[in-house]
Amino acid sequence: MINITQIKLPLSIAQRIDSLHWDPIQLELDAHGAAVIGPVLSPVQCKTLIQAYDEEKLYRSRVVMASHGFGRGEYQYFAYPLPSIIGELRESLYPHLAEIANRWNEGIGIDIRYPPRHEAFQSRCHEAGQSKPTPLILKYGPGDYNCLHQDIYGERIFPLQIAFLLSKPGEDFTGGEFALTEQRPRMQSRVEVVPIEQGMGVIFPVHQRPMKGAHGTYRVNMRHGVSRVRLGLRFTLGVIFHDAL
Question: Per the domain annotation, does 20 fall within a domain?
Answer without folding.
Answer: no
